[in-house]
Design a protein that fits this description.
Layout (H helix, E strand, L loop, with lengths): L1 H9 L16 E5 L2 E2 L7 E8 L2 E12 L2 H4 L11 E8 L14 E3 L4 H11 L16 H29 L4 H12 L6 H10 L2 H5 L5 H11 L12 H17 L20 H12 L5 H7 L3 H8 L26 H23 L2 H13 L6 H8 L7 H15 L8 H11 L3
Parallel strand pairs: 4-5, 5-6
Antiparallel strand pairs: 1-3, 2-3, 3-4
Helix pairs in contact: 3-17, 4-13, 4-16, 5-6, 5-13, 8-9, 8-10, 13-14
Length: 427
């Protein structure tokens, strides 16, 4: 409630004709001040006119006036600079530490604002504003989507930066962990990242001349090998034996098998083939980051991920019975997702850090050229009338849905703000 009041104050969404102190003096807000997100009064350097006299200072906001004393502000010199106390319920006078009384205002808003806000945050719809978003100007939506696209990209770039610091500037290590994580395709992302961190490149490079040993290390570390298992799968038995030797040699500890999610996943999307694909990149030495940077365009990037698995994994989705129809490790749609979540952030981060801004532009161009993703989030916005023409747009909508709609943070969303602002000023 207090955050909502701060929002109303910050954006001037009150009813000006009702701005009176509790002792009847008219209040005119010349400047609501700067929102303070740290300790101290809520708004700094506000400028208000009370009964014709201008005051410059801080503003404190509470749901109940009695919160002033409850929070100890009456004994805190940091709050002596407060020139106006804004509340929802006036249940007590407020005093500075020297006993001086502070002007107090009960914040009044339009009933339409209150009802609109409650309808949004209490909505049972997937998108809180689904029924009214058509009334929002297209320019507002377009500008917000563009900003969210960069917001989502920068969050991925920050992950790359964090990994670069962890791996002391090794871009190949960063690329290895990033690729591994995104081979999880959402449902197994965390498990794949844990696998990559538990099985570092420096260890895998020692065995890069043997695909069998690479796969033994990766599948063993993933917790997918059981040395006590019996059966007729000779390849599986070889991997178990190899991993037992390597685990003892390097003091390795496997992940818990329960880390992997297989429920409601199509066989072609099982993590086994993704791990086999990762092994494919490591065989002969992992240099995918260099290959990504050297690629001249989307066509060459796609070739990097159009991997056709050989040997055992050419006709297996998991350990056990072979399948009749072998397939590429990744479908075209899956490659799109890898380019979106792996290549674009790596381009952008590398460009920012090295000052090669042609690469940051290349990251944006890549997202603009890739087709719109197909998922339930994109479908929900399409039903509301927001169409997608590229991966850049769908990335923005994913950010909007997860960070704002699902959390019902409508007051921080430009679309929600537009709707609430109109409601606040409507008679």
């Amino acid at each position: 409630m207090e955050q909502l009041m701060q929002y109303i104050w910050q954006h001037r969404l009150w009813r000006s004709e009702d701005m009176l102190t509790n002792d009847g003096r008219p209040v005119r807000v010349l400047d609501p001040g700067l929102l303070n997100t740290d300790a101290g009064p809520d708004f700094f350097n506000a400028k208000v006119e009370i009964d014709g006299q201008t005051w410059v200072g801080n503003v404190e906001i509470h749901v109940r006036a009695s919160d002033w004393k409850r929070h100890g502000h009456d004994r805190d010199n940091a709050y002596d600079s407060v020139v106006l106390h804004v509340v929802d319920k006036d249940d007590a006078p407020v005093l500075r530490s020297n006993g001086e009384r502070i002007p107090q205002l009960v914040l009044q808003v339009s009933p339409l604002f209150d009802s609109s806000y409650r309808q949004l945050v209490n909505s049972k719809l997937e998108l809180p504003c689904e029924n009214v978003i058509a009334s929002v100007p297209r320019l507002t939506i377009t500008e917000w989507i563009e900003r969210l696209a960069f917001e989502r990209l920068h969050s991925k770039v920050q992950r790359v930066r964090d990994l670069l610091e962890m791996y002391h500037g090794s871009w190949e290590d960063v690329c290895y962990v990033t690729v591994a994580r995104n081979l999880g395709f959402g449902i197994n992302n965390d498990a794949f990242e844990r696998l990559a961190r538990r099985t570092p490149l420096r260890l895998l490079h020692k065995h890069s001349d043997s695909l069998m040993q690479i796969e033994a290390l990766l599948f063993g570390q993933a917790g997918m090998l059981d040395p006590m298992a019996t059966g007729t799968d000779t390849y599986y038995q070889h991997l178990c034996s190899e991993y037992a030797f390597l685990a003892n040699k390097f003091s390795l500890r496997p992940m818990e098998p329960e880390s992997w999610k297989l429920f409601r996943i199509r066989p072609q999307n099982f993590p086994y083939r993704r791990i086999a694909m990762l092994a494919h990149y490591i065989e002969g030495s992992f240099r995918l980051m260099a290959q990504i940077l050297d690629a001249s365009g989307e066509k060459e990037l796609r070739k990097l991920f159009q991997v056709e698995l050989t040997g055992y994994w050419s006709n297996h989705y998991s350990f056990g019975k072979p399948q009749e129809r072998p397939s590429l490790a990744l479908s075209n749609r899956s490659i799109d997702i890898v380019l979106i979540n792996t290549v674009a952030p790596l381009y952008y981060a590398y460009g920012e850090i090295t000052g090669n801004y042609a690469l940051t532009d290349k990251a944006i161009s890549l997202l603009e050229s890739l087709p719109a993703e197909k998922n339930s989030i994109v479908d929900s916005f399409a039903r509301a009338g927001i169409d997608c023409d590229s991966a850049l747009t769908t990335q923005a909508l994913i950010e909007l849905r997860r960070s704002y709609c699902d959390a019902r943070k409508c007051i921080y969303c430009k679309i929600g703000h537009r709707l609430l602002s109109e409601a606040a000023h409507r008679e």
